[in-house]
């Protein structure tokens, strides 16, 4: 279930989905895992396949839903982008798949892990990239069991 709310108060949409919508949300989770890197470990179910020396495909399965993203790394081995050739997007009440990308910047060390403190997410449209989210992490703390 995806629940969109304005300032966490006014409900804008509630989407329950299977198929493309569920896959899109699993892709979002996988991309956001750059901010909690232990979620990207093979022990957490992520399967990695090297593409070249600066990129790898990560696949995560959740029941019948599977999501794969291309992760690109900088010279220090830190995540600089994630990309999907086709991620579901709600357009006019229908799900359409489009290329999608998340960019990560300003990596800092927190609790012994390097994490991005700024990011941008965008659709890669024929007329050019269309960012729909930019953000910065103001505070970050991890709790380990």
| Proportion in β-strands | over 45%
Radius of gyration: 16 Å
Largest sheet: 7 strands, antiparallel
Indicate the mean pLDDT. 89
SS content category: mainly beta
Query: How far apart are the first and last residues' alpha carbons, in Å?
Result: 27 Å
Given the C-alpha coordinates, what overall shape results? Answer: globular
Q: What is the helix/strand order?
A: EEHEEEEEEE
Count the strands? 9
Which bin fits the share of residues in helices? under 10%
- Helical element count? 1
Number of structural units classed as domains: 1
Uncertain regions spanning at least 5 consecutive residues: 1-7
**Biggest sheet: strand arrangement:** 3-4-5-6-7-8-9
Describe it for me?
- The protein has one domain (17-136).
- The two termini are 27 Å apart.
- The protein is globular.
- It is mainly beta and 145 residues long.
- It is built from one helix and nine strands; from the N terminus they run ββαβββββββ.
- 9% of the residues lie in helices and 59% in strands.
- The strands form two sheets. A seven-stranded antiparallel sheet has the order 3-4-5-6-7-8-9.
